[in-house]
Design goal:
The protein has 462 residues and is α/β, with parallel strands linked by helices. Helix content is 41%, strand content 18%. It contains 16 helices and 14 strands. The strands form 3 sheets. Strands 7-8-6-9-10-11 form a 6-stranded mixed β-sheet, sandwiched between helices. A 5-stranded mixed β-sheet has the order 1-3-2-4-5, with helices on both faces. α12 links the parallel β9 and β10. α6 runs antiparallel to α7 and α7 packs antiparallel against α8.
């Protein structure tokens, strides 16, 4: 049974395209969200059970993905699939129904929020007379638009070629067999499909070599950072959890932060000095998503190494999203695939973002539930700044240890360091001595104490 959505209510602010007008509007599209019944799930889903997402949540995410590449949605629907067809996934009745919708609405693209085999994609394109994108293809399109750096562009192109290689099927006229000799006597040469696949493989090998060069450069930069051992803190989370907004809040950077899936693709690193003087490297990474295509995970391995190499990982969750628990599970699953244990509370901090969007009742309930765990999450709002100081303090404690009390006496010639001490420690007491010197007792991190010793060229008592 299909549960159809009013496209106007789902996608607002999109200019309609009228055939015959001079200016071409956005690409018109139909979004179909197949929901397979429990007994039709794959072996992977059986062996690695996951929380069931609501149909509405899947629909909203599919619409968000389509909006990310500015598609004009004329129709969206959730379709329950009890008996997946090998040829088309959907039943013949539904295929005919959607074909009529595509025809009447002059749609150019049909998005099917589910993995499609090459044969299914080809057959649906014939039935709909329109381009068909499955979930993997749609995410690749988004990544292709979002990539800005050379590395990001190379990674997307590599993922797209690997995906395309599996889609070369004998379905177009230019894939007819070519002859290797003159006239009718020459033996059959390689087919066009074999030629296309060979060319794709050559491009893939070339891209891998280029990415290897980029990876070596990244390794050199990482090695330089380790020589000046600044702890690396990586922000990870489901796409649209607010990673870039938090990154901007902590660093003052101007990274693109919009209410849009995959608004940020290329990784960004910034040096940040925390409240008590601890310097860290903060890394904003690509957002995760359920059923992230394996092509993308492989292609973005170099980028995701920033997460693997990080000293501390902030797992940011949109706590206001009804599907937040399922999203967290997807993130933890991908982290596990990367070799990062999400349950390691010494290395992974769970951060609940968008706490400002909750009403008082839900806020108190969630905070009470979180407080019952071994490592209570930090509740913040990256937009309003609520909880940010507590998060900074926890990060500093994790990377530099607990604050230690130390006492220093500054000679009159060293009084220029007083301001630095106030900015990089919690001053407990200050005594202005008769000889013009100043004795200050303060709480400081281990790294700040080392910096104090370096600045004053003396051992501190404490």
């Amino acid at each position: 049974m299909a549960r159809e959505k009013d496209a106007d209510a789902t996608v607002r602010g999109k200019p309609a395209h009228h055939p015959g007008t001079e200016a071409k509007g956005p690409t018109r599209a139909v979004v179909i969200v197949p929901v397979l019944t429990r007994h039709q799930r794959s072996d992977d889903e059986i062996n690695r059970p996951r929380l069931t997402r609501s149909a509405d949540a899947r629909h909203d995410e599919a619409v968000g993905l389509a909006r990310a590449i500015d598609l004009d949605l004329i129709h969206t629907a959730v379709v329950t699939v009890n008996d997946p067809r090998p040829a088309t996934l959907l039943g013949s009745g539904k295929v005919a129904e959607f074909a009529e919708i595509v025809k009447e609405g002059h749609a150019e693209v049909v998005v099917v929020d589910h993995p499609l085999t090459p044969v299914q994609q080809r057959n649906l394109e014939k039935e709909f007379n329109a381009k068909v994108l499955d979930r993997t293809g749609l995410i690749l399109e988004i990544f292709g638009e979002r990539a800005r750096t050379k590395e990001g562009t190379l990674q997307v192109e590599l993922a797209h070629l690997n995906y395309q290689k599996g889609r070369l099927v004998r379905s177009w006229t230019h894939l007819e067999r070519q002859r290797g000799g003159a006239g009718f006597l020459g033996g059959p040469g390689e087919t066009q499909i074999e030629s296309d696949r060979r060319q794709l493989q050559e491009k893939i090998i070339k891209l891998k070599h280029e990415l290897e060069t980029v990876r070596r450069t990244r390794d050199l930069h990482r090695a330089k950072r380790k020589k000046v051992p600044f702890p690396v803190v990586a922000i990870v989370g489901y796409t649209n959890a607010g990673k870039s907004t938090l990154f901007n809040r902590l660093t003052g950077a101007g990274v693109l932060a919009e209410d849009m899936l995959f608004a940020t693709l290329d990784p960004t690193l910034r040096r940040v000095r925390l409240q008590h003087g601890t310097p860290i490297i903060l890394s904003d990474t690509v957002g995760f998503i359920s059923d992230l295509p394996t092509h993308l995970v492989a292609a973005f391995r170099a980028t995701l190494e920033e997460v693997v190499e990080a000293d501390l990982v902030l797992h940011l969750r949109d706590i206001s999203d009804p599907d937040t628990t399922a999203q967290a599970e997807d993130v933890e699953r991908i982290l596990g695939d990367l070799g990062v244990d999400a349950s390691d509370t010494k290395r992974v901090i769970e951060v609940w973002n968008k706490i400002d969007l909750l009403d008082d009742g839900n806020r108190e309930r969630l905070l009470a539930e979180g407080a019952g765990g071994k490592a209570p999450p930090i509740a913040i709002s990256a937009v309003t700044g609520e909880g940010i100081d507590a998060l900074k303090a926890l990060i500093e404690t994790r990377v530099s240890g607990e604050l230690e009390k130390t006492t220093v006496t500054l000679s009159p010639a060293q009084l220029g360091q007083v301001d630095w001490l106030y900015r990089n420690g919690d001053v407990v007491s200050r005594i202005d001595n008769e000889d013009g010197s100043v004795t200050i007792s303060l709480l400081a991190t281990h790294s700040a104490r080392q910096e104090i010793e370096s600045r004053l060229h003396r051992k501190n008592s404490g």
